Amino acid sequence: MRYLVEYLPRIKKITVILDECVEPRLVQVKPLEVHIRENNSISIIKLPYEVELQDSLQLTEGTQGEYLLRLRTLASPLEKMNDVMSVPAGKWTKKDLNLENGFELNCLKCNTPVISTSNINKINELPSEFWMELMDYWHCHKPQVGDNELLDYSVGRNTLIPLTGELLVGNSFFLLLPSTLQRQAAMKHEELTCLKCNSILGDRTTEGLCRLYKWKLYLRKNDETDYFKPEDHVLLSMLEALKGNSERYTILKWEENVILLWLFSIDIGVTLSGGKVLKRAVKIFYTSDLAVIKKICDERQVEEIKVNGDVFDAFKKTIENVHDMLPQCSRGLGQWEACYLELFSSL
Ligand SMILES: [Zn+2]
Ligand SMILES: [Zn+2]
């Protein structure tokens, strides 16, 4: 049996969709579980949110051989109603990296601390990952007095150059001076590599700064370990485009490889076949069909994200894995393929 549970908090509905099953019977609904009998075995499907227990709940047969169960959820928390602004601001932000309590960002491959209180004494947040674009724009249009946050960065330093020991935190990378990382990493050609194991940790910006990719590190904090998945980089960029200019279409590029992504819904709950519950997720439609991509790009504004091969491959693999777990009737919309991604959480 394959299934999908989709929870839409704004209309307080959960839909359970079953396929590849023969004469399933609904045995029981509990606040956070649905029990289904097929032949002589019972499958327990976990729900992403508590449902109201009503009489007369029934499985109904859909048009493509699937079975459906529609449930009403208890009132959802208010912050869920706020759509994109309710989404976590990011992962490993300035707030998550507290100098007083201590933390270490270590090389994924050899565990060497790359960033810690031994080489960092100041942390600042980049206002936006589109900073470079803004700087370019401001080159000819100075920001207005009154935009305090912007003035801090532009007039204060006139460029985006951190001090030695200062960590600038972006959505999915950090910016530092090479001198801050002199014992941890070295610039080889245009790549930033770990001094101990030689693995690539980042690259060099046009200003000569070290750009350290978050997905090449893991975070140790309060005796806990946290990872930043390469696909979170893509998801964060998509959410930023949505927050910044209401853009829901993004084209992901690596060399000649492209995927067009459509951020369809935000902050919904999902349970995938196999039992993985995504309490906070996004629904994304995607396509690699060049004719469709051309049509959409001709018709509208599309955000572009250029990534390296490792990010592109990790993202593609993740969305295809999720897509393959979906029941047939939930797999797409016209030429679009469907998938869900979990919204990151931070330690
Ligand atoms: Zn290393
Ligand atoms: Zn498909």
From TrEMBL:
A single MF term (Gene Ontology): cyclin binding
GO biological process, one term: protein monoubiquitination
GO CC terms, sorted: cytosol; nucleus; ubiquitin ligase complex
Signal peptide range: none
Cross-referenced InterPro entries: UBQ-conj_enz_E2-bd_prot (IPR019193)
Protein's recorded name: Ubiquitin-conjugating enzyme E2C-binding protein
